[in-house]
Amino acid sequence: MNDFTELLDGLRAAVEGRTAPAPVVRQLLSEVEDPATMRRAGHVLADLPSVVPDLRPIKVTVLATCTIGPFEHLLRAAMVAVGAQPTLLLGDYGTFDLTLAAGEIDGSPDLVACLMDERYFLPREWSAVDTEGLAAHIEARFTELRGAILACLRRTPGAFVLHTVPVPAELRDSPISWRARATAARAWHRLNADLLGLAEEDGRITVVDLAGELADVAVAARDDRLHRYADLPYTDGALLTLARRVARVAAARSGLSRKVLAVDLDNTLWGGVLGEAGEAGLQLGGLYPGNCYQDLQRAVRRLREQGVILVLASKNDAGPVDEVLTRHPEMLLRPEDFAVRAVNWSAKADNLRHAAETLNLAANAFVFMDDSPFERGHVAAELPGMAVVAADGDPAHLVRSLLRPGWFDVPELTDTDLKRPALYRSRALRTGFSTGFASSEDYLHALRTRLIAHPVTTFEIGRVAQLSARTNQFNLTGIRFDEGATTAMCADPDRLVASFAVSDRFGDEGIVGAAWIESRGRVWWVLNLVLSCRVFGRGIEFAIADWIVRRAREAGATAVAGRYVPSERNKVADGFWEKAGFTPSDEDGTYTVVPATAPTCLPTWIAYPGDE
């Protein structure tokens, strides 16, 4: 699409209707490469209400060592494209150091995005014959920045996003000695390496490699005239590159990442059509274009290794496909790599809907990659929350098309992430196992489910914070406790954060639930309770409620109280407290139970370790 009038009209209609842009409009927005169009989109979206259905509200403060300029509008558009609705708070010009030194960021933002240019690190006067002195100054400025950021994190609950800074041409070209140039360049690359290293010091710091990004895109990094005229160091194209990365960080930290990659076979995972070319005629491995398809399989396999669930969606006869998946020497993906295989002649939209039901995941957890414009269009129309990736065109671009948008980004990998593909494959096996029982209760007893519950350990904080961010359906209050807040609660003697893991005859599900509890006198308040959708329908939530009441009784609490705050996405949790034996109180949405007299709500088919 060269004319983006349709896109901007869709955004204006959403603003006028005070609702989120449609998924197809947001996907178009995510594909825009023209910075001017994204600036216009950001201007339009500035009038969108701060809270709208289907967009995750996020408060973002932008602090800059230069003029913020169009970054505000580019960032807003980029964040709406990934499913977030940002409230942007812009730091005043010239107050970057002062704001960090104060130690607290006004407005308690969820995310602080730092826009930095080279003048922050370079002295105004420096000598091209004293590159060692220049290197020492750059290192000292980084040390000051590091100290200010870490001090600020001790007093601010939000996360920080920083970025590497491209090597300035003045630094690169001023020394006329190649040796001096190398020394200066090494100092700058060391600065960027140190910036990237900040992410290893605190889990709430993310560093975007802007310098690396700009080396891979066809945009100029700097505008010398605007830099000197208005202290705007970067071009709109460079700022759009940064805005998209910051938006990806915000999406990952807010639980908006995708979990499932559904992928086609013919002309996607391999070249050619199996039904026409046969196994021997497939293009796979070797020289171009076969190497492109094998490279895509490598990329898909790497995603699976990091926890992305794979679904196969192909219009083919199942027998020949199984033969290729099992025996073809150039196939890198095998049958066991896929949690669900939908190989038949049904509509792919129907197959993907069934796969989502099997995995107990919503369509917006999926990314669908296919070479057919018809199939992509049909899936987008039938399952509007599902992201689609085009696999047609030159196969040399397959890997970039899949990875570039960052659909599956997470702040950091947890053990549960790494186990997720196997966990969901086990879920599919459970679905097949359930067909041989007279009743659902017989099936649940046969699963031999065990609940492992305990206060969160240091090693589990990342997973529990991830559950808080990504769980929407069984999320009782909608309060999201990030890694910093969860860590603080774990250290508070008047608060308890508990994790809940599940295992059964098919294996270990890992941590599937969490509760954040506060002791107010002798009353235990459940601030929030979340449960992964992959264990719905097994009564796990009632076993969790039973454990909480047991612990409260042991602690001498006179009451346990909890709330249910309804939203568009958590209707599955409606009525939970009453079913668990709690009584509605006069306060709207609050339920209580007396631990000393509360009957157990532990399902008979679930056991605690040691109770069997």
From TrEMBL:
Family annotation (InterPro entries): Acyl_CoA_acyltransferase (IPR016181), FkbH_domain (IPR010037), HAD-like_sf (IPR036412), HAD_sf (IPR023214), HAD_SF_ppase_IIIC (IPR010033), SGNH_hydro_sf (IPR036514)
Protein name: FkbH-like protein
Protein source organism: Amycolatopsis japonica
